[in-house]
Amino acid sequence: MFLLNDPDQVHTDSFTVFSSALWFYMTPQTPKPSIHDVASGYFIPTNADAGAGITDGFGVTTNIINGGLECGKGYEDTKSQYRIDTYKSFLIHFGLPAEDEATMKCGNQKNQLPWGGYGH
Questions:
Q1: At what angle do helices 58-70 and 78-93 cross, to 10 degrees?
Q2: Fewer Cβ neighbours under 10 Å: the N or C end of the chain?
Q3: Which of 48, 80, 77, 82 is nearest to 61 (CA)?
């Protein structure tokens, strides 16, 4: 209730910033799965997902976060490509295995996750 009275706390109060980011990461928002489900390997694309070009991988996290602006253009948006490049640099920095770059992209995914998909 306190956020309804003072919504600026979402970007000014450090505890609220962290809490809201964690909530967004963990909570599915139909028809979107949670980013946690994708990152932890629980996300398994359904036939509806596959029909929308949604595959398992980093690209679907971009679609969950900002798909309406960055995905579904038929090419990789500049902001999405920056996310990919940053993610790849983190993989290298932490000595994690490389991933297939094709699964990191969302340019060919529909920019809205489908009804009947995993997140629905």
A1: 160
A2: N
A3: 80
User: What mean pLDDT do residues 55-71 have?
Assistant: 94
Q: What are phi and psi of 29, to 5 degrees?
A: -130, 90
Q: How far is CA 32 from the centre of its chain?
A: 9
Over residues 28-41, the mean pLDDT reads 95
Between CA 113 and CA 120 the distance in angstroms is: 9
All structural domains of the chain with their residue ranges: 31-104
Class of the domain covering 31-104: mainly alpha
Q: Which tokens hold the place of 119?
A: 């997140």
User: Would the pTM count as exceeding 0.85?
Assistant: yes
